[in-house]
Design brief:
It contains 8 helices and 12 strands. By secondary structure, the protein is of the alpha+beta class.
Length: 342
Amino acid sequence: MLRLLGILFTVLLAIVTAVLVWPQFFDLERTYPFAQIVAARGVVLGGFLVVAAIALLLLLARPLRGFAASVLIVALLGAGATGVVGLSRGFGANTLPAETEASLRVLTWNTAGEAVTAEEIAGQILDQGADIVALPETTEAVGEQIAVMLREQGHPMWVHHVQFRPDVVDGPKSWQTTVLVSPDLGEYSVIASSQDGSSNTGSVPSAVLMPVTGEGPTVVAVHAVAPREEEMDQWRSDLQWIADQCPAGDFILAGDFNATVDHMAHLGVDGGDMGNCRDAASRTGNGFSGTWPSSLPALLSAPIDHVMASADWTPTGSVVLEDAGGSDHRALVVQLEPAPGR
């Protein structure tokens, strides 16, 4: 009887391991609770190693050696497969290449409302030489303060803003998203459907910016709702909306996606991760570096903040900034170069 229970447990462990390693194979990557578990692959990897260590100890008990050996093999396979995924996406690069005349730097940072000061945000923008900045949960007033500071430092930027329920006095900062764009990219404006919410993410706002002259990339500052159990339907809808914002053409998405590239399986087109857009961090050695929560080391947190670009752009480097400045999110900076032949 005990032998049968051991076999059943090992089979169940093998199934769970397969789902945690690659949930998209089973179409479970956006299903509760697998979506939440796979978000932090570093924790999953650690879990497999803990199970392997316990199995090693159980090998010392002669009656349990067969069971323990089976569990050990499954746990090591799970850890190895998760490690391979990590290697393919990158465990962390901490430098950007030198800027070129054609390069574009994009910074995204969910600032958790007023947790990060305007001075800190402006300082990072200057230090990183950002041309496009997506700031979910940042108010328009803070965005304007940042722009004034940047102008005084010779780095002017235009401020754009979207807010849900502006009629609510002192509403949640998560109802606001601010975007800064360098005037070197030309004049931009937020499209009407972003402003009135007729086409937008559902609970927290994203902003779609179009170049007024028709030249330059369309910029989408993203904020999807978090995948809490009661918000799963809205979360899935938000991710589909975001994917729809990157059809064929010149597009850049940046912001708090509240999703990792695992959750984006089956939402990409022609080699993209979200529509035609490709995740920059996972293509430049930072796909395993988490941005939330900032209280945990990067390798144990979830990489849910992204910069993505269509095939018009080639990502050449990325950095996850260690100093979160009081926010629960780390900032991500990506350098893009025009694709060959563009």
